[in-house]
Structure formats: structure tokens, C-alpha cells
């Protein structure tokens, strides 16, 4: 028995003993090494009170605690090493055979053991883990992802895509395919495990999936693939789900079939495709993304070949939600790092955390971080209810998924940069995690659809059309909005807004100093676009919508019932800022746009820290109203 087998798994192990606190004050501010990321996360715990059944919470808490401690210690060390030692592609084996293989640093392998072996993140939605006899609800799974990603981001791609590939095969695969793949993909023993991946993008088509050129040819009852995949994360996955066009099938997405591509054939030989090159990436450097050439590779059809694209969208949407979770996790890490840095650094005779401008800066990291966490758990809860059969929850999830992906991934870029700045010059140096967080943050706006594509997808079905039609309509709407922006570009002041009832209009000073001025032109275009797009539905809305993003507002407005703002929202408006818009969604969720007055920003930060609520019977979870539950979009 090897050493690994004798020792308890990381999921079972107790916390490492933290080093004794140093007696000497250090002029260099500390970082979050050895922080317990679960213990430190008051917002997460309050949200879990809302969303996780108490008995299950009791059962899972020890695992959350272990992962929280690991993420601040061992995992964090491994992640830093793996980032500095990215994978290397070898074209041949030592016998000169064309057996391409990827070499990983042992630190990456150890993280794989923690993720797939000890905690079994990939399997927890599909079978019992930790001695439980049933799969975990989505909220629990995403909390595990959230804690893990605070230390390591790159590996979450293979973890998540293995989980989502299993989902697709379970949902759409035939019995033979399930028998062939699922026992291997659900294994916890890394020697037996088949990890998954998803190869869609080609040179011709990332956003425009219908343009992909890979061909599937029938071969005596089997299918063989020819073509190239241009972006393949987890390039050496044991089984990849991909889209290819069966010969003779129509052009566009309608003609795409979904296939499972095994890396090895039944006799153990390598399947007929090659990893041609690994990408030299800005971030996610621990994980291998490559280019693949398919030379007649054997692939198994998944579900009906006529529905390939539609089926693949299940995986895309699951991945998008996971991207929201990852962004929330990285923002939490950024916030924790920034708070540690600000509290630990002295300048001009005082701790920098005590300077008002620094507190305002921290607030701007805190609000999107809390907002993203609240949103992803709300969406995860909707997913759980949708899986249990609620149509209303399914509709809500359909809207929340792109909202979360869009907003959280974009915010993550700004929050990571903000956290780097809080640490000062050291934040830019690769000795500190902030530099890696800045690099890693950017991929969120690309993976599983750029922000524009995600926005357009949100609008498609909402407007009763196909995904593609929705994209086209929203695009033309965006173009009209952009024309409006261009028309005003020369003006220093924005023109007065036509409809901002209930005192929704912030003063020019507030807009500027609350950080909105840099978005003002873009908002003007988006706002006019959203109004037109939502049509009559917008007319009864509480205020002009001006979330700094694309057509998503239109989608939420269309869904709204345009009821008056809740008392909680009104109180929020009175005390902390001005409500820009407020919409009630199904499942009693309210999306509220609030613009905080600059003079109130500092109060808001204090308010978050004290945990006091100005609104009776309303509990705040880090900036989010949660009794109903409510969501607040804050910018
Ligand atoms: C590190 C990395 C790893 C990746 N891993 C994978 C993977 O494992 N599997 C996989 O399948 N893919 C993967 N991708 C690909 C990724 O999903 C695509 O890069 C992304 O979807 C964008 O596609 P594209 O690069 O072709 O850009 P394009 O589609 O060419 O887009 C270029 C620009 O045009 C904009 N645009 C396009 N259409 C519209 C429109 N209708 N309206 C407005 N704007 C529009 C986009 O928003 C974007 O800004 C990976 C990418 C990276 C960088």
C-alpha cells in the first residue's frame, strides 16, 4: 500500500496547525496564507442558513471547514507552484511513438487528488459522497467550488467540465454509452477516473458556433471525426464532448451533432487525434489548453444527432453558472487579500485601512463580491428547485444564469485590479497572489461566451424567438443604442433623462463620485436600448434602467410584473442611495438597481461590517436583501 493510501484523505483530515503569530511587526503587509476561507466568510454562512436544509448543513459543515482551511493553506501553496510550472506537451513517448502526452507538475497532480479523489467535486451532483446516499443539491456543490477556487482557479475547469459532461451523458446518452462511460467518469480513484472536457470552438467559430467545420463521417455503424478544434481546455481529457457536423447535415447550428470523444480506444490504443500545441495563456496557467487535430477519431453520438447544439447548451449553461461561482470566489479572495493588506500596511503614521478613500475603495470590492455570492447561491437554489420540477424556477434560472455569468465575470476583472492596487506595488509582483488573480480574472469574460454573446442569449428565448433570432434582434437593438452613444459622445454632460420617477435621479456629483461617470456614455446607450427592447413592459417600471450592461436589463424588465417597489427597497432608497429600477421576478425575487450616493458609501461599508439593518424584518447578507429572497444589483 502506498503512502497516499495509508493517510486519510484531505476531505477527512483536520486543520494544519497555524504558525505562531510573529511578534515583530512587519512593514510588508501580510496576505491570506493560513486564513480559514470558510470561517472568514460571514456572508456565505448567512446565505447557507437560507438555502441549505439544517440537517444537511450539519452534515456538510465539517467538509466546508476542511476545504476552507485547505484553501487558505495547502491548496494555496500547491496552486502557486502549479501556476509557476505550467504543463508541457510532449509530442511522442520515449519509444518515438506518436503518443502525445502532457506533463504536469506534481503540485497540480496533488490538487487533482484533493478535488477528484478526496472531495469528489465532479461526482457530488450525480451520486452520494461523504457517506451520503444521495447527490448533493446544487447549492452545496457550488459552495465547494467557491471555496476551492479561492485557492486554485485553473483546475476548476477540468473539475466542472467533468461534472457537466457526466450530466449530459446521463441526460441524453443511450444505455450503452452510459454503461461505457459513467462508471469511469464517476470514479474517485484517479487511476481509474476518466475526466471530461468540452471542445466546441474552432478557428471559424467561437461565438458563431454554427460556423464550425468539423465533420463526422459514418463508418460501418461507427462515427469518425475530421477537423480541428482551436481551443481545448483540459486538452488531454479522457473523454471530450464536442460538436461536429454529420456529412450531409444542414449548415448552421441545426446540423450539429453532439459526440463523445474518448482519448483511448477499447484496446488501449490512442484514438486518432493529436494535441498539436498548447496555448501560451495569460492566466489559468496551471491547466493545459491546446489545439486538437482530429484525423478520423472514433466518437460516440450522444442523444439525437439532430439536437446536438440544443443538448450542448445544457453544458454551456451549467458552465456559465459555474463561471459565476468562480468569479464570486475570486472576488472573495481579492477582497480578503485587500482587507489584509489594508489592515496590515502603515503609511503616513496610520493603518491605510483607516483612510476614508481606502475604505471607499474597499467598499467597491466588497459590494460586487457579496452581490456575486448572493446571486450564485440564489441561482443554485433555483437550479435545485428546477431539478425538483418547478417550471417557475427553471424559467428564473434561465434568466439568472446569463445575468450571473455576465455581471460577476465582468466585475471580477475590476475587483482583481482593485485588490492589486490596495496592496500597492507588491500587488503587481508575482510573489503575491494578487498578480495571479488579475491574470486569471480575465478569462471569465471569454469562456462559455463573451459578455455580448451571453447578453444576447439572455434576450433570445425571453423574446419568444430562437436563440439565434434573439441574438440578431438584440444585436440590432444594441446597434441603435450604440448610435445613441456616438451621438452624445461629444457632449460633456448627459442630457436629462426622460423618465426617472420617485427621485431616482442621482445628482451629477453623485454619479461622478460614485464611480459611475466612467460608465455614463455606455449606460446612456444601453438604457435607451433596453427601454425600446422591453417595449410596453418598461412603461410601468419603477425607474429608468441603467445597469451597466447590454441587453440583460431588457430581459429582466420583460419578465417583471412591474409591481411597485417593496417597502424594503424604498427604505433602502431613502437611506442609502437612489433606486434606479426595481423589478419583481418569478419566485418573489426582486432585482433592484441602486445607485449609492457618494456621501453614503462610507456609511454603507460600516453598515456591512456592523451587520445592522435599517430595514425592519430585513436581513442583509453583505449588501443583498435576503428575506424573500431579494437580489440587489449595486454599482
Ligand atoms: C484560455 C481559453 C480556453 C478556452 N477553452 C475552450 C474550451 O475548452 N472549449 C471551447 O469550446 N472553447 C474554449 N475557448 C474558446 C472561447 O469559448 C472562445 O474564445 C469564446 O467563446 C469567443 O470566441 P472567439 O474566440 O471565436 O471570438 P469571436 O467569436 O470571434 O468574438 C470576437 C468578438 O466579437 C464579439 N461578437 C461576436 N459575435 C457578436 C455579436 N453577434 N454581437 C456582438 N458582438 C459579437 C465577441 O463578443 C468578441 O468580443 C477557450 C478560450 C480561451 C481564451
- What helical percentage do the residues reach? 40-55%
Main pleated sheet: 5 strands, mixed, barrel
Structural class category: alpha+beta
Which runs of at least 5 residues are low in confidence (pLDDT < 50)? 1-5, 461-635
Radius of gyration of CA atoms, rounded to a whole number: 25 Å
Protein model, in words:
By secondary structure, this protein is of the alpha+beta class. Among the domains are: 196-311, Butyryl-CoA Dehydrogenase, subunit A, domain 2 (Beta Barrel); 450-634, no CATH class. The protein is built from 20 helices and 14 strands. The protein has a 5-stranded mixed beta barrel. Strands 12-13-14 form a 3-stranded mixed β-sheet. A hairpin with a 5-residue loop joins strand 12 (577-584) and strand 13. Helix 7 (156-172) packs antiparallel against helix 9 (308-344) and helix 9 runs antiparallel to helix 12. It is globular, with a radius of gyration of 25 Å. The model is unreliable at 1-5 and 461-635 (pLDDT under 50). The protein binds flavin-adenine dinucleotide. Flavin-adenine dinucleotide binds at residues 198-201, 206-208, 231-233, 279, 281, 284, 289, 443, 446-447, 449-450, 452-453, 471, 475.
Topology of this structure?
Blueprint lengths: L2 H4 L35 H10 L2 H19 L1 H11 L3 E3 L10 E3 L2 H13 L19 H12 L6 H17 L2 H11 L10 E4 L15 E5 L2 E12 L5 E8 L10 E6 L10 E6 L10 E13 L6 H37 L1 E2 L2 E2 L4 H32 L3 H32 L10 H9 L9 H12 L4 H22 L19 H9 L3 H15 L1 H4 L12 H8 L7 H10 E8 L5 E7 L1 H13 L20 E4 L1
Parallel strand pairs: 3-6, 4-6, 13-14
Antiparallel strand pairs: 1-2, 4-5, 5-9, 6-7, 7-9, 8-9, 10-11, 12-13
The site of flavin-adenine dinucleotide has 23 residues, from β3, β5, α13 and α14.
Amino acid at each position: 500500500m502506498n503512502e497516499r493510501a495509508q493517510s486519510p484523505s484531505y476531505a477527512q483530515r483536520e486543520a494544519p496547525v497555524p504558525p505562531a503569530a510573529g511578534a515583530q511587526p512587519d512593514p510588508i503587509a501580510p496576505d491570506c496564507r493560513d486564513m480559514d476561507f470558510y470561517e472568514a466568510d460571514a456572508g456565505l454562512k448567512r446565505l447557507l442558513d437560507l438555502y441549505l436544509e439544517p440537517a444537511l448543513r450539519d452534515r456538510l459543515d465539517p467538509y466546508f471547514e476542511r476545504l476552507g482551511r485547505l484553501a487558505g493553506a495547502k491548496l494555496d501553496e500547491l496552486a502557486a507552484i502549479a501556476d509557476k510550472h505550467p504543463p508541457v506537451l510532449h509530442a511522442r513517448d520515449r519509444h518515438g511513438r506518436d503518443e502525445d502526452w502532457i506533463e504536469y507538475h506534481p503540485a497540480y497532480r496533488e490538487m487533482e487528488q484533493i478535488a477528484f479523489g478526496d472531495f469528489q467535486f465532479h461526482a457530488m451532483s450525480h451520486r452520494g459522497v461523504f457517506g451520503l446516499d444521495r447527490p448533493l443539491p446544487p447549492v452545496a456543490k457550488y459552495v465547494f467550488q467557491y471555496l476551492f477556487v479561492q485557492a486554485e482557479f485553473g483546475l476548476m475547469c477540468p473539475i466542472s467540465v467533468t461534472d457537466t459532461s457526466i450530466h449530459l451523458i446521463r441526460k441524453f446518452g443511450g444505455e450503452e454509452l452510459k454503461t461505457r462511460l459513467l462508471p469511469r467518469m464517476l470514479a474517485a480513484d484517479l487511476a481509474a477516473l476518466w475526466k471530461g472536457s468540452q471542445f466546441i470552438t474552432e478557428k471559424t467559430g467561437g461565438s458563431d458556433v454554427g460556423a464550425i467545420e468539423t465533420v463526422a463521417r459514418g463508418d460501418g455503424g461507427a462515427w469518425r471525426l475530421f477537423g480541428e478544434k482551436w481551443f481545448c481546455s483540459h486538452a488531454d481529457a479522457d473523454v471530450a464532448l464536442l460538436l461536429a457536423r454529420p456529412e450531409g447535415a444542414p449548415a448552421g447550428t441545426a446540423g450539429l451533432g453532439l459526440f463523445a470523444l474518448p482519448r483511448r480506444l477499447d484496446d488501449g490504443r490512442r484514438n486518432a487525434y493529436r494535441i498539436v500545441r498548447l496555448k501560451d495563456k495569460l492566466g489559468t496557467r496551471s491547466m493545459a489548453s491546446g489545439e486538437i487535430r482530429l484525423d478520423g477519431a472514433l466518437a460516440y453520438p450522444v442523444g439525437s444527432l439532430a439536437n446536438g447544439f440544443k443538448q450542448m447548451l445544457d453544458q454551456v449553461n451549467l458552465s456559465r453558472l459555474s463561471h459565476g461561482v468562480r468569479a464570486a470566489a475570486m472576488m472573495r479572495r481579492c477582497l480578503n487579500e485587500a482587507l489584509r493588506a489594508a489592515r496590515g500596511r502603515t503609511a503616513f503614521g496610520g493603518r491605510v485601512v483607516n483612510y476614508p478613500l481606502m475604505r471607499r475603495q474597499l467598499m467597491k470590492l466588497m459590494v460586487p463580491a457579496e452581490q456575486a455570492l448572493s446571486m450564485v447561491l440564489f441561482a443554485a437554489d433555483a437550479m435545485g428547485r428546477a431539478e425538483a420540477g418547478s417550471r417557475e424556477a427553471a424559467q428564473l434560472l434561465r434568466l439568472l444564469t446569463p445575468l450571473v455569468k455576465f455581471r460577476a465575470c465582468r466585475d471580477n476583472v475590476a475587483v482583481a485590479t482593485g485588490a492589486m492596487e490596495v496592496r500597492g506595488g507588491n500587488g503587481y509582483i508575482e510573489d503575491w497572489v494578487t498578480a495571479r488573480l488579475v491574470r486569471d480574472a480575465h478569462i471569465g469574460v471569454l469562456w462559455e461566451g463573451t459578455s455580448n454573446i451571453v447578453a444576447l442569449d439572455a434576450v433570445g428565448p425571453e423574446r419568444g424567438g430562437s436563440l439565434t433570432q434573439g441574438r440578431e434582434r438584440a444585436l440590432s437593438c444594441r446597434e441603435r443604442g450604440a448610435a445613441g452613444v456616438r451621438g452624445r459622445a461629444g457632449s460633456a454632460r448627459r442630457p436629462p433623462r426622460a423618465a426617472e420617477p420617485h427621485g431616482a435621479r442621482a445628482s451629477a456629483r453623485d454619479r461622478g463620485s460614485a464611480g459611475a461617470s466612467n460608465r455614463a456614455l455606455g449606460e446612456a446607450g444601453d438604457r435607451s436600448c433596453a427601454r425600446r427592447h422591453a417595449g410596453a413592459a418598461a412603461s410601468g417600471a419603477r425607474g429608468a434602467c441603467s445597469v451597466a450592461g447590454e441587453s440583460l436589463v431588457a430581459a429582466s424588465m420583460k419578465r417583471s410584473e412591474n409591481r411597485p417597489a417593496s417597502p424594503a427597497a424604498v427604505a433602502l432608497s431613502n437611506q442609502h442611495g437612489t433606486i434606479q429600477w426595481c423589478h419583481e421576478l418569478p419566485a418573489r425575487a426582486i432585482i433592484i438597481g441602486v445607485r449609492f450616493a457618494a456621501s453614503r458609501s462610507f456609511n454603507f461599508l460600516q453598515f456591512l461590517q456592523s451587520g445592522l439593518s435599517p430595514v425592519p424584518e430585513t436581513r442583509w447578507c453583505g449588501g443583498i436583501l435576503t428575506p424573500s429572497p431579494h437580489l440587489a444589483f449595486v454599482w
